[in-house]
Amino acid sequence: SFRVALCLLSFYTCKTNQILAAVCYALSQILDALDGKLARMFNQSTRFGAVFDMVIDRFSVAGFLAVLSQIYSEYSFWFILCIVIDFSGHWFQMSASLNSREESHKRARNYNVIVDIYLSLIHI
Description:
By secondary structure, the protein is mainly alpha-helical. The chain is 76% helix and 0% strand. The protein contains five helices and no strands.
């Protein structure tokens, strides 16, 4: 996917060209928002697409946090902890939504207040 390429370019250039890295990462996130909205608008949402989107999102966030842990090594424990929380929280959310037969983990009814808060914050 083009998003993956933009993320990889962002991670690769983060130490030598911060502006290019920031632009590539921002474009990747904008494309993420657009592809989901367009898929729902044109009724093209699928379970595969939802899972694929979630995996690419996790890759993107984990890569970004890994880059930050290199730049700010004194905080690397906290960045790694964020990766663990992000992966585990989304795994639980995705598992619950697949068991409820929802097309997207974002549509599943959340019984966990912490997951509700997290999902609402990332869409601000």
